[in-house]
Structure formats: structure tokens, C-alpha cells
Amino acid sequence: MLDVVRLRVLAAVARHGSVTAAARELHYSQPSVSHHLARLEAETGAKLIQRAGRGIRLTEAGRLLAERAAEIVGRIDSAAAELSAHVGLRAGRVRLAAFPAALGTFVPGAVSLLAREHPGLELRLTETEPHEALRMLRAGHVDVAVVFHHSGTGAEAEGVRLTHLMDDPGYLVTSGVPGDLSAHRDSPWIGGCDRCRGPLLRLCARAGFAPDISFTTDDVVAAQALVAAGMGVTLLPGLALRAHRNPGVNAVEVPGSTRHIHAATYGEPPPPPATAALLTALTAAARATDVP
What we know:
five-stranded mixed beta sheet, 11 helices
């Protein structure tokens, strides 16, 4: 059986890329870290660490085990926090990761509701995009992740449970009369990063053209400012427009552009009391939120 302490050591070494830094984080001596790594190699029968100049690096087996170790250690830490919160929500913590538009709209309402209903419960909040939020969820670094997927794409992976919060339509944003997508086949477009521009490319392809992406930004404030200045047109979700609306832009809903927003949790039901309380607050706040 693998020793949890040694898995924690391996995860720290993988995270920092150095025995010295791992020892500092764990408050161990360097020889102690090296001893734990050697014992873990003996337990697994695999070479996990190799020398690289003056430093070290993980072998392929080491990287594989380190990834699993981070998940295992994260779940153990999460379980400890859940047990501490199981005293009736009078104490403890719950951790939430959410993307910027959610943080700028319905999440603050959920935070306020949770604080009123459970004043002894500590909420820790992280802003991050859905792919990273899900990684944090699986690793046990957060208890709930607010994520989304677009119509026509699949929901999340095995082991993740989704609670539907709301549907968020997409809008064509222009400085003049919006029209429809095909009316802007020759317009310059403002697109997001490669990961974020997929819905725009699919919708334009359905309309029979490929957009000429002249500017790239994931900042909805900057995107709207560029549109208002006449530098192009863009596609933005309704929540982003609710979080910030430039008075110099017009917006019209684009059919088929809806994204579905969920609160993701990990593991078998029922969720721990603190997580269940946060899910209730998120659901209530999302239902009270109107999109343009």
C-alpha cells in the first residue's frame, strides 16, 4: 500500500521541481524528503526521480504517480475540511472556483445568501476559467466549480456531477445596427483566445463564412471598447454583457449560441453539508439573475 506522506512529498517535488523547495513547503529537511522519495521508489518498484545537472526531474512513471498523488492528497485534505464542517455548518469552510462573468453577476448574490444563512461558514473564492476550475475540483482544491459548455458540445467528464444553474445566450455586439451574423461576413472581428473562439468559428461557419479575426482579447471590457470605437464586431455571452455594458454598443441574440452554466461537484452524492449549502445559494442566485 502506498504511503500518503510519501505521496504528499512526491506531489510537492513535482509542484516545485526541486527537493529544496518541497522541503521548505512541507517543513521537512532535505534528507528527509530524499528518504521519502527513495522509500516510495522501493514501494513501487519504479524509478520516479532522475538527476538532471544539479537538479532533478521526474521520470514518466514519476509524473504519472505525481498527478495521481496530487488528486489523492487533495481529496484527503478536502475530506478533512468536510468533516470539520459537519458540525451543522456552524464552522468550517467551502471553496468555490468560478469564471469572471459569473463572478461579475450571480456569484456575489450567492456569497451574500450563504453568509446570511450560515454566518460561521468560511467561503474561499478563486477566479479561473472552467478547464482549470475542473482540474482544481478533481484535485480537491475546490469543492464546487462554476463551469459552462456550449450547445452542441458534451458535458464534463466522468466523476463530475453537474447542477444546472442557467442558460446564457450569446449576442452579436456591434457599434451600429447589429443585423445577423451573415451581414458581417466582411467585417473585422474581435475574437477570444484559441480555446475561447470555438463557438464564434462554429456559428460563422454555419452562416457560411469564416470570420476575419483582427483583434484577440478575452477581456470583455476591452472587446466592447474596440467595438464602440468602430474597430470590429464580436460575439459575447449575455452574462458578460450584464457584468459590463459599454453604452456605445448594440447587441442582438444569436440563435444557437447558448452556453449552459453548471455548478460542478466531484464524487458520489449526497454532497457534504457545506457544499450542499453553496449549491443551494448558487441555484437561487442564478435563478434571480436576468441576462440581456
